[in-house]
C-alpha cells in the first residue's frame, strides 16, 4: 500500500519512470555516434524517459522519386552504433525502444526462398472465377490463374500455387449474391487434376447437378512481393516469420549489445500497414477447419475483395456475398486470422522479449481485419495512435478495456502526427507547424480515453554523416533544416528537437506530461460502463473515422465507458460482485449491447450469468437473434436453426431478469441508467465539454478533468474560453487540487458533500486540464497562495512600454546547422504578431519581451492576465522564474511581486515554420505548402495586451 502523501510527493518531484518518450528517426548506420549521443542528451535535458529508434532509409529531397534502401540495419556497423547509443542511454538513466526491423511493416534483410514456409515471407491469396456454368453448359478446361497472383509472386521471386477450387450458384446475379446451400469445394483427383507433375497447371471438369447458373472459383496462394526498405515483408500469421525474427535478434543483434542491452525497455512494432488482397499463411485452411469445424474454401468469396489494398486506407467490399450467414462467415475468417496472429506472432515475440527482460510495445491489429480488442491482451504495452483514430476517443477505448481487464499498467500512444489536413490539422498542418498546444490537444483526448504514456512523433536525426559519399560532413543532397525521417520539410509532424526554437520550452511540457502520466498510473482505472464490441475492421481517418458507440449521449452526461470483446468475457476476473463486473479492476456497473443483431453464444450465456448475479444489462435497438459464428461440427441448416433457437431462448431468459432493459434508441439510455440508480463517477455538467478519468488506489481517488470544448480539431479550439462550473466527483475525504505544471498541491476549501460525491468548483480553459485528489489523509500543502477570482473587486494595470529583443533562426552554413542572428531591440507600442513588425515578417526564433511597472504594496492574490502566446513562453518576475500553465490565461504571481519597481521578462519561442517557408521560397523548393499563400504563415509572439489584476487593498 502506498500512502497518498507519498504518491503526491512523487507527483511533485516527478517520477522519472512516468516521463514521455519520443520516436527517433535515424537513417541507418550513416549516422555518427557523436551526433546520436548529443541528440540523446538533448532529449534527456528536454525531459524524455527515452527514445524509440526507428531506422529509416534516406531519401534525398532533391530526388524524391529515388528511394535509397541502404539502411544497414542489423549489420555490424549498425549494431556497433546502437551499442554506443545504449551505453550513453545507460549513463543518462534513459531507456531505448527498438523498432524490430527497419521501417515498417516488418521485413528482415537476407536472401530467402519465398516459397519455403520457414522463410516466413508474407503471403496472400487471390481468386478468379468463371461464370455462366449450367447443366447445359458445363465447364471443362484449364483452371484460370489471377494475373495479380502471377505478378506478385514474380516480384517476390516465388510462384503462385493452387489452394482450392469451389463452386456456388447465383441467388441474385445482378447483386453478386451466392446461394449458401449450393457452395461446395471440388476435390483434387476427382474433380480436377494437375496437368504435369511439378507444374502449377490444372484441368477441371464441373457439371452442376441442379438448374441455375453456377460459378467456379479458383484460389491461388502466393508471396505478396511487398517490401520494406528493399526487404520482403514478413508473414504475421505463421510461426516461421516469428522464429526467423527472433533468431535474427538473438543471433545477430543482442549479442553485439552485450551488457548494454539492459538499457532496452521495449521492442516496438508499428501498425499493420502492409497491402494484400486477402491475408494468408501456409496451412490456413487446415487450421480453419480444425478450429471452426468446416471447410472455408467454398465461402472465400464472402471475404475477398479484388480491389481492396488490404488495410485501413480503404473499406473492404467483398465482390460477392452469400444469401444467408454472410456476416457469420466473415466473422469466422477474421476470428481465425486473429487466432493465428496471436498464437504464431504475438505470443512468440512477447515470450522472446520477456525472456530477455524486455517488453513488447505494439500497435496491434488495426489496419487489418483482426480483432483489435483481443490482440491488445497479448502484448506487454498496447499502443494506439492519434492520427489514424482522428482523435475519436472511442478508438482509444477499443483497447483500454483490454488494458484494464488484464491489469496492464501502461497504455501507450503514438502522439499527434499530422499531415496535410490529416490528424485534425488544417490543409497545411504538418512538419514545423505543430505547436505544443496542438500536441496537447491530441494528448488530452487520448488521456481521456485511458492512455497513460505519450510517445511523441517524433525526432529526426539532424543529418551528420562522415562516411563515404558525405558532403561536408552531412548526408548527400541534404537540405536545411536537416534530415527528415518522415519525408520532407512539408511532410508529417513533427521534427521536434534542437533545430526548432520551441525546444527551448520542451521541459516545461514534458514535466507536465510526466506528472499527469504518473497520476494516471495509480491504482485501478474505474470505468462506469462496458459496451460490447465484436469488431474486425476499424474505419479510421483515411475513410472517414466513425465512433464505435455512435452517439455522444454517454460522454455528454459524464459517463465513462470502454469496449469489451468476447475474449474478455472468458477472463478470470470477468465475474460480478456487488453488482459490478470486474469489481477489483475497472468495476463496470452496467453492460451495454448496441444494436447487436448477432451475438456469440458464449457471450449471451455469460451475460445471463452476469444478470442473474446483479449486473444491469441494457440492449439498445436491435436484439440479437442469431449467433455471430458458423462454428460447429458441421455448418448445416439444422445446426444453425438450433443455435438460433438457443439465442432466442437466451434473450427470453434475459428479459425475465429485473435488471435487464431493452430500449429503442441510444438517447433513451440516460433515463434507464437513472432508473437503475447508475450515476457516473464524474458528473461534469452534461454537455460533453469536460471529460473525466477516475483512478482509485487504496481508498484514495484521483481524477483528471479535461476541457476538450466542442471543437472537432485543434484549429477550432479557442483557448480564451473558460468553463466555470461545479462538478460532482465520487469519493470521500478531503479534495486537493494538483497542479501538474508546477507540482504544487492545494486543499480545495469551497467544496460540498453530496452523499457519495464531493461537489468541487472547476475553472478550465479549453484544452486545459485539472487533477483532483480525494483522500482521508492530511496532506501538507505547497501551493502559491490564493489568486483573485473573476468577479472579485480588483484593480487592473495594463503593462506597457515593452521592448522586444528578437533572435532570428536562419539556415546555417551547412544543412545540419542553424544560424542565430540577434536583431536590434524593438520598442513596441502594442503587443502583436511578429508578422506585423517590420523586419520580423518571416522570422522564426526567440523573442525576449521586457518592461517594468510600479507597485505600492505587495499583492498576494495578484494574477497576470495573459493573451494568446504562440508558441511557448517562460515568465520571469524580478529575476525569478514563475511556474506557468501556458494553457491558462490567468497566472498567479502574487508571491513574486514586491513594493516598488517590478521587472518582468517573457521569453517566447516559435516553431521553425516561417523560416522554413521563407527558405523554401528563396531556394525555389516546391511542396505541399505554398509559401506565397499568406495563410500558410503562422503568427508568432504575444498577441494582445498583458494586464496585472490585483486587490485594491
Walk me through what this model shows.
The protein has 953 residues and is an alpha/beta fold. Among the domains are: 121-227; 526-674, Rossmann fold, CATH 3.40.50; 682-775, Immunoglobulin-like (Sandwich), CATH 2.60.40; 795-950, Jelly Rolls (Sandwich). Strands 1-2-3-14-17-18-19-20 form an eight-stranded parallel beta barrel, surrounded by five helices. It is globular. 52% of the residues are buried.
What would the keywords be for this entry?
Immunoglobulin-like; alpha/beta; globular; 17 helices; 22% helix; Rossmann fold; 953 residues
Summarize the structure.
With about 950 residues, the chain is an alpha/beta fold.
List the helices and strands and how they pair.
Layout: H1 4-13, E1 21-26, H2 33-45, E2 50-55, H3 76-92, E3 95-99, E4 123-133, E5 139-142, H4 147-156, E6 161-172, E7 177-178, E8 184-185, E9 192-194, E10 202-206, E11 214-223, E12 227-228, E13 231-232, H5 239-257, E14 264-269, E15 279-280, H6 284-292, E16 321-322, H7 326-355, E17 359-362, H8 372-375, E18 381-385, H9 386-389, H10 393-405, E19 412-415, H11 436-448, E20 453-460, H12 506-519, E21 524-526, E22 529-532, H13 553-556, E23 561-564, E24 576-577, E25 580-581, E26 591-594, E27 598-599, H14 601-612, E28 617-620, E29 626-627, H15 637-655, E30 660-663, H16 669-675, E31 682-683, E32 690-697, E33 700-707, E34 722-730, E35 734-738, E36 745-747, E37 752-754, E38 757-765, E39 769-775, E40 795-798, E41 803-811, E42 818-822, E43 826-827, E44 845-855, E45 863-865, E46 869-870, E47 872-877, E48 880-882, E49 890-892, E50 900-909, H17 913-923, E51 941-942, E52 947-950
Parallel strand pairs: 1-2, 1-20, 2-3, 3-14, 7-16, 14-17, 17-18, 18-19, 19-20, 22-23, 22-26, 26-28, 27-29, 28-30
Antiparallel strand pairs: 4-11, 4-15, 5-10, 6-7, 6-8, 6-11, 9-10, 12-13, 21-32, 24-25, 31-34, 32-33, 33-39, 34-38, 35-36, 35-39, 37-38, 40-52, 41-42, 41-43, 41-44, 44-50, 45-49, 45-52, 46-51, 47-48, 47-50
Helix pairs in contact: 1-12, 2-3, 5-7, 6-7, 14-15
Amino acid at each position: 500500500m502506498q500512502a497518498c502523501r507519498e504518491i503526491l510527493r512523487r507527483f511533485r518531484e516527478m517520477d522519472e519512470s512516468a516521463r514521455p518518450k519520443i520516436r527517433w528517426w535515424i537513417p541507418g548506420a550513416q549516422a555518427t555516434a557523436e551526433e546520436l549521443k548529443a541528440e540523446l542528451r538533448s532529449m534527456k535535458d528536454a525531459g524524455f524517459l527515452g527514445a524509440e529508434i526507428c531506422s529509416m532509409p534516406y531519401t534525398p529531397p532533391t530526388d524524391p522519386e529515388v528511394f535509397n534502401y541502404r539502411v544497414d540495419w542489423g549489420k555490424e556497423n549498425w549494431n556497433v552504433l546502437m551499442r554506443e547509443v545504449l551505453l550513453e542511454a545507460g549513463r543518462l538513466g534513459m531507456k531505448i525502444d527498438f523498432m524490430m526491423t527497419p521501417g515498417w511493416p516488418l521485413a528482415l534483410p537476407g536472401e530467402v526462398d519465398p516459397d519455403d514456409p520457414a522463410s516466413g515471407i508474407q503471403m496472400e491469396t487471390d481468386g478468379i472465377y468463371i461464370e455462366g456454368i449450367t447443366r447445359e453448359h458445363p465447364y471443362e478446361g484449364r483452371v484460370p490463374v489471377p494475373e495479380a497472383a502471377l505478378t506478385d509472386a514474380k516480384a517476390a521471386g516465388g510462384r503462385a500455387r493452387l489452394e482450392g477450387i469451389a463452386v456456388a450458384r447465383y441467388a441474385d446475379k445482378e447483386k453478386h449474391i451466392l446461394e449458401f446451400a449450393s457452395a461446395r469445394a471440388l476435390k483434387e483427383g476427382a474433380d480436377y487434376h494437375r496437368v504435369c507433375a511439378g507444374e502449377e497447371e490444372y484441368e477441371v471438369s464441373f457439371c452442376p447437378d441442379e438448374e441455375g447458373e453456377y460459378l467456379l472459383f479458383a484460389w491461388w496462394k502466393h508471396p505478396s512481393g511487398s517490401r520494406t526498405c528493399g526487404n520482403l515483408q514478413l508473414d504475421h500469421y505463421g510461426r516461421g516469420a516469428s522464429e526467423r525474427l527472433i533468431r535474427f535478434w538473438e543471433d545477430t543483434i543482442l549479442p553485439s549489445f552485450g551488457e548494454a542491452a539492459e538499457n532496452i525497455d521495449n521492442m516496438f512494432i508499428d501498425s499493420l500497414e502492409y497491402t494484400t488482397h486477402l491475408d494468408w499463411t501456409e496451412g490456413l485452411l487446415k487450421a480453419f477447419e480444425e478450429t471452426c469445424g468446416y471447410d472455408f474454401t467454398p465461402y472465400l468469396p464472402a471475404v475477398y475483395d479484388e480491389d481492396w489494398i488490404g488495410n485501413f486506407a480503404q473499406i473492404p467490399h467483398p465482390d460477392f456475398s452469400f444469401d444467408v450467414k454472410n456476416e457469420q462467415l466473415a466473422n469466422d475468417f477474421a476470428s481465425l486470422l486473429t487466432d493465428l496472429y496471436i498464437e504464431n506472432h504475438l505470443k512468440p515475440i512477447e515470450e522472446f522479449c520477456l525472456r530477455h527482460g524486455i517488453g513488447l510495445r505494439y500497435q496491434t491489429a488495426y489496419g487489418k481485419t483482426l480483432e483489435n480488442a483481443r490482440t491488445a491482451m497479448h502484448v506487454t504495452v498496447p499502443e494506439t495512435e492519434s492520427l489514424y483514430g482522428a482523435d475519436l476517443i472511442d478508438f482509444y477505448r477499443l483497447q483500454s478495456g483490454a488494458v484494464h481487464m488484464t491489469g496492464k499498467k501502461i497504455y501507450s500512444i503514438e502522439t499527434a502526427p499530422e499531415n496535410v489536413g490529416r490528424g485534425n490539422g488544417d490543409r497545411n498542418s504538418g512538419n514545423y507547424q505543430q505547436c505544443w498546444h496542438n500536441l496537447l490537444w491530441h494528448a488530452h483526448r487520448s488521456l481521456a480515453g485511458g492512455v497513460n504514456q505519450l510517445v511523441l512523433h517524433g525526432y529526426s536525426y539532424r543529418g551528420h554523416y562522415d562516411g563515404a559519399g558525405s558532403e561536408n560532413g552531412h548526408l548527400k543532397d541534404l537540405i536545411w533544416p536537416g534530415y527528415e525521417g518522415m519525408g520532407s520539410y512539408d511532410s508529417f509532424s513533427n521534427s521536434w528537437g534542437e533545430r526548432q526554437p520551441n525546444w527551448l520550452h520542451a521541459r516545461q511540457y514534458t514535466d507536465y506530461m510526466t506528472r499527469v502520466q504518473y497520476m494516471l498510473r495509480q491504482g485501478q482505472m474505474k470505468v462506469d460502463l462496458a459496451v460490447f464490441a465484436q469488431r474486425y475492421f476499424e474505419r479510421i481517418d483515411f475513410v472517414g473515422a466513425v465512433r464505435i458507440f455512435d452517439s455522444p449521449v454517454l460522454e455528454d452526461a459524464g459517463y465513462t465507458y470502454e469496449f469489451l470483446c468476447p475474449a474478455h468475457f472468458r477472463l478470470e476476473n470477468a465475474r460480478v460482485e456487488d453488482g459490478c463486473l470486474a469489481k477489483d479492476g475497472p468495476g463496470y456497473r452496467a453492460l451495454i449491447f448496441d444494436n447487436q443483431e448477432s451475438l456469440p453464444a458464449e457471450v449471451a450465456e455469460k451475460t445471463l450469468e452476469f444478470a442473474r448475479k446483479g449486473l444491469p444489462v441494457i440492449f439498445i435497438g436491435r436484439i440479437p437473434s442469431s449467433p455471430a459464428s458458423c462454428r460447429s461440427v458441421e455448418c448445416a441448416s439444422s445446426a444453425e436453426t438450433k443455435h438460433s433457437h438457443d439465442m432466442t431462448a437466451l434473450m427470453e431468459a434475459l428479459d425475465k431478469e429485473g435488471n435487464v432493459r431493452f430500449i429503442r434508441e441510444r438517447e433513451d439510455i440516460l433515463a434507464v441508467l437513472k432508473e437503475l440508480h447508475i450515476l457516473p463517477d464524474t458528473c461534469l455538467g452534461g454537455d460533453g465539454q469536460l471529460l473525466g478519468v477516475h483512478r482509485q488506489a487504496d481508498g484514495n481517488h484521483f481524477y483528471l478533468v479535461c476541457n476538450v470544448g466542442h471543437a472537432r480539431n485543434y484549429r477550432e479550439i479557442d483557448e480564451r474560453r473558460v468553463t466555470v462550473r461545479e462538478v460532482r466527483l465520487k469519493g470521500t475525504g478531503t479534495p486537493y487540487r494538483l497542479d501538474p505544471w508546477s507540482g504544487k498541491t492545494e486543499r480545495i476549501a469551497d467544496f460540498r458533500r453530496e452523499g457519495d460525491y464531493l461537489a468541487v468548483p472547476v475553472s478550465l480553459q479549453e484544452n486545459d486540464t485539472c487533477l483532483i485528489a480525494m483522500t482521508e489523509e492530511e496532506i501538507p500543502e505547497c501551493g502559491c497562495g490564493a489568486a483573485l477570482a473573476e468577479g472579485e473587486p480588483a484593480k487592473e494595470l495594463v503593462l506597457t512600454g515593452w521592448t522586444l529583443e528578437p533572435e532570428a533562426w536562419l539556415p546555417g552554413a551547412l544543412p545540419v546547422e542553424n544560424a542565430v542572428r540577434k536583431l536590434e531591440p524593438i520598442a513596441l507600442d502594442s503587443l502583436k504578431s511578429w508578422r506585423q513588425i517590420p523586419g520580423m515578417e518571416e522570422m522564426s526564433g526567440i523573442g525576449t519581451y521586457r518592461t517594468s511597472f510600479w507597485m505600492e504594496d505587495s499583492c498576494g492574490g495578484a494574477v497576470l492576465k495573459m493573451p494568446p502566446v504562440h508558441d511557448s513562453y517562460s515568465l520571469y518576475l524580478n529575476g525569478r522564474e514563475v511556474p506557468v500553465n501556458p494553457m491558462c490565461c490567468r497566472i498567479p504571481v502574487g508571491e513574486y511581486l514586491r513594493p516598488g519597481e517590478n521587472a518582468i521578462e517573457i521569453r517566447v519561442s516559435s516553431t521553425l515554420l516561417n523560416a522554413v517557408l521563407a527558405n523554401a521560397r528563396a531556394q525555389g523548393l516546391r511542396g505541399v505548402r505554398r509559401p506565397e499563400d499568406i495563410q500558410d504563415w503562422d503568427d508568432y509572439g504575444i498577441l494582445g495586451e498583458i494586464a496585472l489584476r490585483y486587490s485594491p487593498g
